[in-house]
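Hi all, posting the design record for the shared folder.

TITLE: backbone redesign
STEP: 1 of 1
STRUCTURE INPUT:
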């Protein structure tokens, strides 16, 4: 059986400790094996990770300028949630711990989502979908 494919989203951050504290307060952990003084490996699931990389170190990986995420959108990161309540819990925790609003909440009945910006202005969306309603469409 092949190993499941993994994803590592690499995000530049201005202050690594501030960003680590923010995500820690949202209940996320870090893999110390892939973290050091310029990088923190945020564990989202068994196969999904965000590499939070200080801007000076991030510049070692690209010839392009780093996007100013306070003015431009370079990525939208969407996470699934198991319920509408979990969507609200994460969004409220983000806003209470240094995050800022991104977009208006989205409620389609069978799908509900909210979004926030982390301290570096990366946009995170948290979305719940009623699987029964989705499977019934088709």
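Okay, here is what came back for every position:
SEQUENCE:
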């Amino acid at each position: 059986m092949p190993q499941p494919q993994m994803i590592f989203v690499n995000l530049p951050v201005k202050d690594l400790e501030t960003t680590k504290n923010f995500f820690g307060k949202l209940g996320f952990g870090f893999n110390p094996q892939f973290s050091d003084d310029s990088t923190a490996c945020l564990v989202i699931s068994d196969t999904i990770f965000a590499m939070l990389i200080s801007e000076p170190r991030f510049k070692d990986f690209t010839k392009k300028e780093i996007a100013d995420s306070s003015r431009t959108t370079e990525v939208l990161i969407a996470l699934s949630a198991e319920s509408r309540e979990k969507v609200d819990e994460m969004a409220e925790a983000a806003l209470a711990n240094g995050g800022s609003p991104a977009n208006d909440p989205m409620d389609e009945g069978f799908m509900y989502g909210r979004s926030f910006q982390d301290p570096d202005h990366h946009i995170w969306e948290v979305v719940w979908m009623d699987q029964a309603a989705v499977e019934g469409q088709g």
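COMMENT: Strands lie at 7-13, 29-30, 39-43, 48-54, 76-80, 100-101, 106-107, 111-117, 123-129.
Let me know if anyone wants the other runs.
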